Amino acid sequence: MSGAVELINLTPHNMEDLASGFSAGPARGKDLLRVQKSSLLQGSVMDCNIFAIKEEVYGEIPEHDDSKIYIVSQKVAEALALDKDYKHRSDFVYPINIQHEHVTKTLRDGYDKVVTDSKGEPMTTRQQRIKGCRGFEFPRRAK
User: CA nearest 87: which of 119, 54, 116, 61?
Assistant: First the structure.
């Protein structure tokens, strides 16, 4: 790729490349791209229904721009690579080598009050969260 290219995040997550330091906040509203999965009845065999899975991208898919590459989820990238209207596009990538970290969070009830144990100590839970990724990848193209 030649010239200045801008990476634009179209996921609902903060996107951070741990190798380069690149960071972009989450997309919101119409800028967010997601996959909607549906099952379409194809027929039946011996009274058993047979379904085909259909995955469609929803959200406003941006027009192609040589100066932009769009970060999407792997599911979105793969769905676009299979879609007859978008399979020619090479401006969608997804994060790879995702790194996680464990964080401890204080438990809160429905009223946002800290939950305590029988001794009055705050209760916590250990959760895994995405720390970042180490690069991006283009989806495989259908042959």
Answer: 61
